[in-house]
Specification:
Elements lengths: L1 H5 L15 H28 L31 H15 L1 H11 L12 H30 L7 H32 L26 H17 L3 H4 L47 E5 L2 E5 L1 H6 L3 E5 L12 E7 H7 L9 E5 L8 E4 L1 H5 L4 E6 L2 E2 L9 E3 L12 E6 L4
Helix pairs in contact: 2-3, 2-4, 2-6, 3-7, 4-7, 5-6
């Protein structure tokens, strides 16, 4: 019976790796403490960038309640803001995967310790650990799948990831408050050659196998894995020649085409169900609705209005972005004046002719409409928009998530959207 007990995961002798120990897991924990905090903050900023308080169309988590306490009107300056915050969020999340897996491996014996609860404090620690491990696996798994497969959870990714993040981060803060002081002490004593006695630290095996690699070597291995993921992912956010280095990113490698319209896209005209007959110059009309009524404009009419140019990127929730492209079109605030909004322009509802995919309709805040670089774009890089980039007209707004830069625009309604 004693031999059988020793073979169970609840026995300290079951876990034989000599790498496990307080200092090894403390280094990984401190890296995650910083990294996950940055992930959480940039994730909240990404949610705010969608302006969910503006309109139900933009809000994919309508039951958020007090969790939306921090929401604010997303700014348009600097124009690369969303490109930066979401690029950091996605790239850092992928880079931390080896660290997270190594951390979970290092503490797995604690999940099987008996008795399950020794005191109230110990019970709280075990509960936080359970929520922490489950939340980490859930958040990282859903995030990576969404990045790699583009909305693998259609209609549900936003609430799943949003609510999961709050549960995970609450457990993370609780666990960090309990463990950070000890982790700091362990790291400070890393120069000592000997571990604590096994009786003092349940992570240390009482009967370790012979070492095949040092703990320092194991940390270098984990760090090397993170650097490899960073080097094969970050290029999709940086753009330019570095995009070719993003071998593990769905929007890495070479651009999908050449010429002025040869940069990255999220969904094609075919995927969105665009009928070329609807966007033909002789048929398509832009409907603009505002205070003084309705105006219908052909593409030729739009080209007769004052045109302006702006260098802006496209940045998407999956973490990829383009470098700045030169867009040319009519300012949104000038279109607002056509329908009676002569002063500060109001909020704007934009509707597309697309049939498939999310955000067929999207709302923009007044500050986004008022920005001089916010355009109804007709051209890009000196050439007419291609069908995949939104011909005959698309919205482009500084610092906005890509899905709010509506393509194949059919109708624009200025006014209070609440």
């Amino acid at each position: 019976m004693r031999d059988l007990t020793a073979r169970l995961p609840t026995s300290p002798g079951f876990w034989r790796s000599p790498l496990r120990g307080p200092r090894f897991t403390s280094v990984l924990g401190l890296v995650l403490l910083v990294g996950i905090t940055v992930l959480f903050v940039t994730g909240l900023l990404s949610y705010a960038a969608y302006n969910p308080g503006l309109s139900p169309l933009n809000d994919k988590t309508p039951d958020k309640g007090l969790l939306g306490f921090y929401l604010f009107a997303w700014p348009t300056s600097p124009h690369w803001l969303y490109r930066l915050t979401q690029g950091v969020h996605v790239t850092l999340g992928i880079t931390l995967v080896p660290v997270l897996l190594a951390k979970l491996w290092s503490v797995v014996p604690k999940l099987f310790t008996l008795p399950p609860v020794r005191s109230l404090a110990h019970g709280l620690e075990r509960l936080s650990l359970l929520l922490l491990v489950g939340g980490a696996l859930f958040e990282f798994a859903t995030g990576v799948l969404n990045v790699q497969l583009d909305y693998v959870f259609p209609g549900s990714f936003y609430p799943l990831h949003f609510y999961g993040a709050w549960v995970f981060f609450a457990a993370f803060l609780t666990h960090a408050a309990l463990k950070t002081p000890a982790a700091v002490r362990n790291v400070r004593h890393m120069r000592q050659q000997r571990e604590r006695p096994a009786a003092e630290e349940e992570l240390v095996s009482p009967r370790p196998d012979p070492a095949t690699v040092s703990r320092r070597g194991a940390l270098w291995f984990v760090g090397g894995g993170s650097l490899l993921l960073f080097g094969t992912t970050a290029g999709q956010s940086l753009g330019g020649p570095l995009r070719r280095t993003a071998l593990l990113a769905p929007h890495g490698g070479a651009d999908p085409g050449s010429g002025p319209n040869g940069f990255q896209i999220n969904k094609t005209a075919a995927y969105a169900g665009i009928d070329a007959r609807e966007t033909d110059d002789g048929v398509w009309r832009l409907v603009v609705v505002g205070r003084t009524g309705t105006v219908r404009l052909s593409r030729h009419d739009l080209l007769q209005l004052p045109l302006h140019s702006a260098a802006l990127p496209i940045a998407c929730v999956e973490g990829w972005s383009t470098s700045d492209q030169w867009w040319r079109g009519v300012r949104l605030r000038d279109l607002a004046r056509l329908v009676g909004h002569d002063g500060d322009p109001p909020d704007l509802l934009v509707e597309s002719v697309q049939r498939h995919g999310a955000f067929r309709r999207a709302a923009l805040r007044a500050n986004q409409v008022a920005d001089p670089d916010s355009l109804l774009a007709l051209e890009v890089n000196g050439e007419d928009l291609s069908p995949d980039h939104g011909y005959p007209a698309r919205v482009i707004v500084p610092a906005a998530p890509g899905v709010l830069n509506t393509k194949w625009v059919a109708r624009m309604t200025f006014g209070d959207l609440r």
